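The passage that follows is intended for readers who have already worked through the single-chain material. We present the inputs for a multi-component assembly, then the predicted structure in tokenized form, and finally a short commentary. You are encouraged to pause after the input and sketch how you expect the pieces to fit together before reading on.
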Amino acid sequence: MRIMVNVGMVMNLDKCIGCHTCSVTCKQVWTNRRGTEYVWFNNVETKPGLGYPKRYEDQDRWRGGWELDRRGRLRLRSGGWLYKLLTIFANPDLPTIDDYAEPWTYDYETLFTAPVSADDPVARARSQLTGRPLALRGGANWDDNLAGAPEHAGADPNLRGMEAQVQFEFTQAFMFYLPRICEHCLNPSCVASCPSGAMYKREEDGIVLVDQDKCRGWRFCVSGCPYKKVYFNHQTGKAEKCTFCYPRIEAGLPTICSETCVGRLRHLGLILYDADGVREAASVRDPHRLLDAQLGVFCDPADPTVQAQARRDGIPEDWIEAAQRSPVYALAVRHRVALPLHPEFRTLPMVWYVPPLSPVVNAVARRAADADPDDVFYAVDQMRIPLQYLANLLAAGDVEPVRAALRRLAALRAYMREQQLGGTPDPAIPARAGMDPGALDELYRLLAIAKYEDRYVIPSAHTETADRLAAVHTGCSVGWESQFAATASHFRANHVQFVHVQPRRPDHGASETMAAEPEQPS
Amino acid sequence: MTSATLLAWIVLPYLAIAVFAVGHAWRWRHDQFGWTSLSTQLQERRLLMWGSPLFHYGTLAAIAGHVIGILIPASWTAAIGVSEATYHVFSAVAGTVAIVAIGIGLVILVYRRVAVRRVAVTTSRVDVAVYVLLIVIIGLGAAETIAVNLIGPGYDYRATVAIWFRGLFAADPHPELMATAPWLYQAHAISAWFLIALWPFSRLVHAWSYPVLYLGRPWIVYRGYRSAVRPRPSLTPTAPRR
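Having made your guess, compare it with the prediction:
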């Protein structure tokens, strides 16, 4: 057994309002440069929908992630070492810009320079690749809020096998939002696909990064990632990806997408896991058992034997302490309300989701049977978002873990509503969902109150290693001079320049940032 | 020996080799970030899927052919029982196969670089120079292989060009041999030296990054900031690409 640490994230989909603030702030921080116009380290997809790039979840087409060979051994779905070296001159599985969307800007200059006329001037769309006028036929968020759903949404790979049940007529449609970042997987297929060895998983916190100096632009990481969260910068010829805002994480701060999340739906925390068990967990034959297998490599940070092993493996004391307070561990393991995105890709992803329950409440209200636990749970199976759809998304098609999570959430609502209204909550409600009132209370504090210090439990990187951090990471010169002379000056101002990140003293980080947060009424 | 002979067959080669060596050392030290194939597959895929493998595999075959024909002395192949006639047939036929692959690949790649706007706008001045030199070198090579050796009477370059080339590296150059070679071979060699001099400053450096070390590497790479990490040689930003 060898214990390592991975920072993880849990997103509570019930709270996502699809405002895209996370995407926008992420873009401003990381990808507002030439070459990354089409790159969204964080994006929010409407589900059901095509996703970005289109139909990225269809691995029969894109061949991302892992699969088992006939003898049950784990291998990259897109082929092994030799196949990659032989197809290196033209990657057979790489999406083109049209699978994403040709990026554009508008010809704003015309608005100022157009001669006086009876008609208002129009800023036409121009391709950011060619500078030419572009007819807009797609974008990173083209099917937002089910736009065009009757034509497009049926192509959502998660609808496979359930087309007959799903309707896109306005009155019968369902939808929810799925914010996505890099999964920072325990078994990242992008890292395994990189022939140059430029991609790596950080030993200390599990963040997956691309060494910009070692990347040679072979692009196998892009095709190897089943979530398509590694992007190719077409100006620098290098791969780039979500960094989990590592300079902020090192300083004990949440990622930008989390910090700016309007719905406060993101939770950040540490997971201790057994690195020696990862391969075996990813190799479980039955896809329905992958969730339990992944939970199996997570270690209980409250267990003294785990703590002792963690110390032997060089994990600092304050990190072990933080792991015990991890909201990610609480939601994913202790309460089992969070589920991984597409566990069947066998990458053991570390960004998990609390499945959305909201439409159930409407269904229940219509029955006017709020207090009846039987009806609460019955509604889980009758909810507007089909269980099978969520299962295809979050549980390799197995409805049981989704149903169990939703039952806990339904129990939480019914129980707390009764308590808030001054009644006596029936202890049978949590019991039927396999929980006790104490667990409900913790879940309530995490999901409903969701205070800043409970959502983000991030220990700072250790200051004694700060000089090394600077040596490794400050030189990331991802900003290039633009070759497009006309637009160069505009973009030059936006080049990302890293400054020396001074990690805060561990005891400072949380309290200072908390102060900015208005208190929740309790 | 005329000064032109000296210039073309001694000064130019050594100059090109020096620029090649020093240029690579400089680029490796100062421009790891710029060291990439700068693929345009994201922008255009359909043509690339045909053009790029044809061009690259053809070029690898042609390079192998040059090693056999130029670097390996005729006496060695004779020693293992390969007669000049046998060698000639092999080189003409195999060379023609390679040049056809390269030629088709190059036509496709040049077409997409010129006609596909998304690709055309990414083309730098160095790229243009590389393309022009490649077209010249490959065109001349095709003429040598097909017109001279496959269809024509043939020319035993192993008695002149090869000896001169090897002599350059043995510090025993024979410019007078090269001076007697047909103009096709002379022009091919001169344009190749220009390409070699340009190499370290172009995207051709990606050739040295063919990831052979991927074979046998563990799937997942871990790197830590707590473990010792070698700082980069230079933290200054690398030169802008034009």
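Commentary: The longest strand of chain A covers residues 3-12. The CA atoms of residues 451 and 519 of chain A lie 8 Å apart. How closely did your sketch match?
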